[in-house]
Amino acid sequence: MPAKKKAEPAKTKKKVPAKKASAKTEEVPKKKVKTPELLRGFRDILPDEQGRWNMVRDAIRNIAEAYTFDRIDLPVLERTDLFQRTVGKATDIIEKEMYTFTDPSNRSVALRPEATASAARAYINHGMLERPQPVKLWYMGPMFRHDRPQAGRYRQFNQAGFESFGVHEPIVDAQLIVLGVQIFKDLGLDVKVDINSIGTPECRQAYLAELVAYFRQHRSKLCDEDKKRLQKNPLRLLDSKDETTRELLDGAPQILDWLDEKSKEHFMKVLEFIEEVEIPFTLNPYLVRGLDYYSHTVFEFLPADDTGEKAQNALGGGGRYDGLVELLGGREETPACGFALGIERIVRALGDKGIDPPQRPQPQVFFAQLGDAARRIGLNLYEEFRQAGIPVAEAFGKNALKAQLEAANKLNVDLTLILGQKEVLDGTIIIRDMESGAQEIVDVKKVVSLVEKKLRKEEGVAPITQSPVVEK
RNA sequence: GCGGCUAUGGUGAAACGGUUAUCACACCAGUUUGUGGUACUGGUAUUACGGGUUCGAUUCCCGUUAGCCGCCCCA
């Protein structure tokens, strides 16, 4: 709500003596109400941006339906515990980024920082393990992380996620990746997939020991940040941006060498499958993910032209999380795999690439009115046109015909209907062709069908519907 | 959470210590009575907020807030 709105512009009144008017405005400005500011990292998604958002939302929904995923809507607020147990206590997300608070019933609750845990919780809560597996779910909605905002990073941001529960087969991982890539393709975005396997918790453990041992030897060369990582989260050393660390990485043990046979086989099969469908992927042995629950396959979607220099680049990511369901008290060894997409980042990528949403069909008819009697009729006419499938623009709020025609002109309509006092009395209405300026007085009862006819003539055979033009 | 840059009307910019803060676009109203695309007139900013320095601050300093960039982390 724009707090700007000045008192009451004397719109309807003819002429207020200038003195009075100014005297009036001088009385008002006493209390200047301060407009509340947006919370840091929160934003409005304005009408102008909705076109692109809709493109993304539609692309996601279409793919979800085509791949027979079922929509699920999960609460935004959950017990804090759900995230602590799943995402990992030592992760930044839990340690410092979660919106945690005590609710009025004195429970510790948190705004969800992500939704995979909730999906797994729902899977268990509603006995979905009794349904034919895999259970394929998708969702879309806001997530909350109290991080330092930057372009492409907000405290409230939207994710769309796909989760597949109950099947361990590598084809599941592969299909998820394919499906994700397909969404980007539909949007006209080129992406590449970075992929890696971090194996089972057991082999990861063994690997980590080795990795830590390796870096301990070179500890003195590490930057402070990486020394901390060595302590806290050594896996993170793998995607360090520090020059020397990267060099050291060349000689470091590789996680792929530490995978057990099964993990290795699983991973190879995933790769084979996605190779099969010609998805460009990069085996990135340094790709690790920030959430504790991942195992085996992990992957990220990156812009194809990504240089790796920019920070907020990943458009989405995910992986397998075979331990999660069990961790939440579900059936033992329930496998699962999924990924999430960052809607804001995709929308931004579309903008960067200059990909625009298909134009919404604009009204070709404008209704101009003079006086309240005409407005009343206009209200009814508007609905008649709507039912006939003809969008009509109006400026009911304006009085002067001139102003209304100006508005009509700006909207670039073909036809303007003019209804004044005289026409109201006669039961007629004027149809004005905006290009030629020719006017025609017609029976108001027939105006809808007449307009329909005129429009059809103008368009020739052109259909009204617009197809999404994105495909290239 | 750490470091850096920035902050002027709806938008984009100008002024950079000195009279009523300038310009473009947008918006609103009007240019005598019911007709657009042009033209003209007028209206719309306590220069993010709060302090300080100064005779005087949009301009200098400090704090706050917010945005952006890098780190951390992640989508």
Q: Would you give an account of this structure?
A:
The chain has 472 residues and is α+β, with helices and mostly antiparallel strands. The chain folds into two domains: 47-199 and 259-352, BirA Bifunctional Protein, domain 2 (2-Layer Sandwich), CATH 3.30.930.10; 365-459, Anticodon-binding domain (Rossmann fold, 3-Layer(aba) Sandwich), CATH 3.40.50.800. Helix content is 39%, strand content 18%. It has 16 helices and 16 strands. It has helices at residues 18-27, 47-66, 80-87, 92-96, 116-125, 170-187, 201-217, 224-232, 243-251, 261-276, 324-327, 343-352, 372-387, 401-411, 421-426, 447-459; strands spanning 70-71, 77-79, 100-102, 108-111, 135-144, 156-165, 191-197, 281-283, 295-303, 316-320, 336-342, 365-369, 392-394, 415-419, 428-433, 439-443. An eight-stranded mixed sheet has the order 1-5-6-11-10-9-7-8, sandwiched between helices. Strands 13-12-14-15-16 form a five-stranded mixed sheet, sandwiched between helices. α2 runs antiparallel to α6 and α2 (47-66) crosses α12 (343-352). The model is unreliable at 1-31 and 462-472 (pLDDT under 50).
- Uncertain segments: 1-31, 462-472
* Fold-level CATH name of the largest domain: BirA Bifunctional Protein, domain 2
Indicate the overall shape: elongated
Q: Rg, please?
A: 30 Å
Class by SSE composition: alpha+beta
Distance between the termini: 40 Å
Strand order of the largest sheet: 1-5-6-11-10-9-7-8
Number of strands: 16
> What CATH architecture of the largest domain would you give?
2-Layer Sandwich
Largest sheet: 8 strands, mixed
- The helicity comes to 25-40%
Total helical segments = 16
